[in-house]
Amino acid sequence: MTTLWDTTGSAVVKALAAERRAAGALAFGLALTLVVVVDEQHVSQAESAATAAAAAHPCRLLIVVRRQIDSPHPRLDAEVSIGGRLGPGEAVVMRMSGRLALHAESVVLPLLAPDAPVVTWWYDAPPEKIAYDPLGVFADRRVTGTYAATDPVAALRQRAEDFVPGDTDLAWTRISGWRTLLAAAFDQVQASETAGPATVVSEPGNPSACLFAGWLQARLQVPVTITDAPGRKGIQGVRLAVGDGELELARTDSRSAGITRTGFPTRVLPLPERGLGDLLAEELRRLDDDVVYAEALSAWSQIPDLSRRPLHREHIWRDPALEHTAATSPAGASGRPGAAQRSGAAERSGKAGNAGAAGKGKPTEPAEVAEHAGATPTAPPAAS
Amino acid sequence: MASTASGNPLRDPRDRRLPRLPDNSALVVFGVTGDLARKKLIPAVYDLANRGLLPPGFVLVGFARREWSDDEFAAFAREATERGARTPFREDTWERLAGSLRFRSGSFSDDAAFDGLASLLAELEQSHGVRGNAAFYLSIPPTAFPVVLKQMQRTGLASNDAAGGWRRVVIEKPFGHDLDSARELNALVDDVFTPGDVFRIDHYLGKETVQNLFALRFANTLFEPIWNSHFVDSVQITMAEDVGIGTRAGFYDETGAARDVLQNHLLQLLALTAMEEPVSFSAETIRTEKLKVLRAVSVPDDFGTFAVRGQYSQGWLAGERVRGYLEEADIPASSTTETFVAVKLGVETRRWAGVPFYLRTGKRLPRRVTEIAITFTKAPHLPFDVTDTTELGNNQLVIRVQPDEGVTLRFGSKVPGSAMEVRDVAMDFLFGEAFTEALPEAYERLILDVLLGDATLFPNNAEVEESWRIIDPLEDFWRKTTPHTYRAGTWGPAAADDMLGRDGRRWRRP
């Protein structure tokens, strides 16, 4: 393991090459580069999830921590390891502060494994638009976690607005187990028995329940309602009419669920609540776009033809410092005062986008600007 | 395979997140108290359950002579699982599986026991909704096959129509001991079950690397153009074991290395290496191509030189003294059974004409390793001085099946320095264990395939018979000879080295 303080991107590239040499004749198939974007306070959780996923998929792991975006001096600290605490593969943890955090791609691009697909995962709430984050623009697959947002359902809607094939959300990954069991239960349903209206029972404001409903709507063409079950965590079950009877799939405990169908014995099957590492590993299994996800998201959000959107995103340059100058507008003045004290990096990649999304269902630029007002008072616009 | 899943509106071929679960079904294991069931089958069933790959209505039915209740069987199965499962043991998973365990005791000639089994399966229809689907795993000595199969025929257990679902049978090697006995066995099994419902397990084909061979050959453009006699000099397939015969003395002494390993595992690996590209990736098309290769396999003219048998004598292996084969418990001192066999085969097709396939297997060799090594021809012209390339050998592609699953490519490279010197270097691709520990074990994969009705990884009766056609003349010849001896802990008898030496080649040290 090599630790570099206040270093440069080239030094990190050199350190990685040196680690590779030191590791000897180590050559496993490098299938992809996984870029993890995470805030300082969640680094260890993100690291352990990424390490678990990397154990199932040979990859180069690049963890990017943006912090103190308002710091006057750009600075890069990096830790390079192979076969160390971050799993069997190659891993680089980079902490970027100051203006460098806005140009993270300048450090990350030369570190990408040659010609291998890139997956970017935002541990914290997703950016409002992925195009704002250059680390998402060059990725072939983008994995977000709307769970981390203040208002996950609004964040999921924003994901639908901003959708480009190749995006997925961990809220979707979380229901693979449910979908597997329901599909298995449907294997026993005769073609003559048609499915009727369905209900998904879930804790309120759960994005996975939205996608589950969307998926059922898209596949079965039946009306689907989401019923709140307050006080419980996650999805509790799904009910739907099948033929003359009813089919119900309900969680019995944290590891299993029961399938009940009129006229058939009840069966209990494993339905474990999976850890973040498992979820991420499932995402890394496919590097093409997930059409079924696009259809489920489309059905839920009522935004048609998501899967036919163009595959490419253009980077949209957004400078918090420039927004500072724009913040003299009346909308900017109404910003919450507390925002100014928090670190700009956390705001930018994290809660900022969703604070807007939470407020109005659809974020507006002024709210966004307000978040950053005063957050970067010292950085001159010309610095970028 | 008839399946209700085809019309399932929730299934979408583009939805690769959803694993295919088998139909509700029962797995009936005959000889469930035996070693195979205890060490492999029961743990594999638990692992499948733990991974959530078993259907909602799944029942494991054990059948054996012991007078056990369902609970006693469950206790036995639990112990087997705790010892052998690869996934962590979880009480709740176990509780669920334990509720789906049934046991029927009886001898194979006991009519009442089989009637009881038939009525149990009918009951499970009500309690578990198995819909007449059942797979019968014959984990019993081949001598017991006829009586068990007859019983199944009598009680209608083997009939898809009578059951109203699918009925499949799984058999383990040895599939007979020569061509005639294999034909007899196949005729019997295929008569009781329909041939498409017979699954012959060769657990090597359940291994990830072996399946990766398909990907390597048919998904890449790099290898296929040179995969022929223009570029390939020879092929060596090795399956070496460091262990002795263990507790299988009786079985092994009757069987020998050629029947135990060469006839099935090695010939299957040869078939996968030499086969043409199947028109699609399905059971039928792959078997067609494998069968074509096996039909084209020729044995050498001179058995004395190119079909070598060996038997290990005492020696040192991995720092321990080990006994010779003849000193093993329950082996007659006059035994001429081989524990090592090396043979040169040809594949008489346009692609492979003139390329020797050297196959070898043995016990008490220095280490456990299975690999397929493809040696390429030397470059037709070398523009270097002769002295520059003295250390340059043939290019080689090695597919390591176990352990250290992966691929090695050996090629010439310049020795760093001011002089022009070329020597061999090896490039290793490690499909390392670090990345594959989450993968299912071979038996898990194969049991799942049986329940799904996917026969891609199972050799069929024609392949088995064709393999015996290759082995039988060798066995006839060997009957009159005694095997060479080799010290335990060496790479086989000197005669095996001479065999390649005559062709101007040498065995690769794996």
Q: Care to describe what's here?
A:
The complex is a heterodimer of chains A (384) and B (510). Helix content of chain A is 35%, strand content 23%. With 384 residues, chain A is α/β, with parallel strands linked by helices. Chain A is elongated and about 70 Å long. The two termini of chain A are 32 Å apart. Chain B has 510 residues and is of the alpha/beta class. Chain B has helices at 35-50, 70-84, 91-98, 111-128, 145-155, 160-163, 179-192, 208-218, 249-274, 283-296, 303-306, 433-436, 442-452, 461-478, 494-502; strands spanning 25-30, 58-64, 101-105, 134-138, 167-172, 198-201, 232-240, 297-298, 307-313, 315-317, 320-322, 340-347, 357-362, 369-376, 396-402, 406-414, 422-430, 484-487. In chain B, strands 7, 8, 9, 12, 13, 14, 15, 16, 17 and 18 form a ten-stranded mixed beta sheet that branches. Chain B has a six-stranded parallel beta sheet with strand order 3-2-1-4-5-6, with helices on both faces. In chain B, helix 1 crosses helix 2 (70-84). The model of chain B is unreliable at 1-5 (pLDDT under 50). At the A-B interface, helix 7 and strand 14 of A face helix 3, helix 4 and strand 17 of B.
In short:
Chain A is of the alpha/beta class and 384 residues long. Chain A has helices at residues 9-22, 43-56, 105-108, 134-137, 152-161, 170-173, 176-187, 207-220, 276-285, 291-301, 320-326, 330-333, 344-360, 365-372, and strands at residues 2-4, 32-38, 59-67, 75-82, 90-97, 118-122, 141-144, 167-169, 195-202, 224-228, 235-242, 245-253, 256-261, 264-270. Residues 328-384 of chain A have low confidence and may be disordered.
Question: From the alpha-carbon coordinates, what is the Rg of chain B to the nearest angstrom?
Answer: 25 Å
Number of helices of chain B: 15
Number of helices of chain A: 14
Q: Which pair of chains has the greatest number of interface residues, and how are they split between the two chains?
A: A-B, 47 and 43 residues
User: Low-confidence parts of chain B lasting 5 or more residues at pLDDT below 50?
Assistant: 1-5
Largest sheet of chain A: 8 strands, mixed
Number of beta-strand segments of chain B:
18
Main beta sheet of chain B: strand number and arrangement? 10 strands, mixed
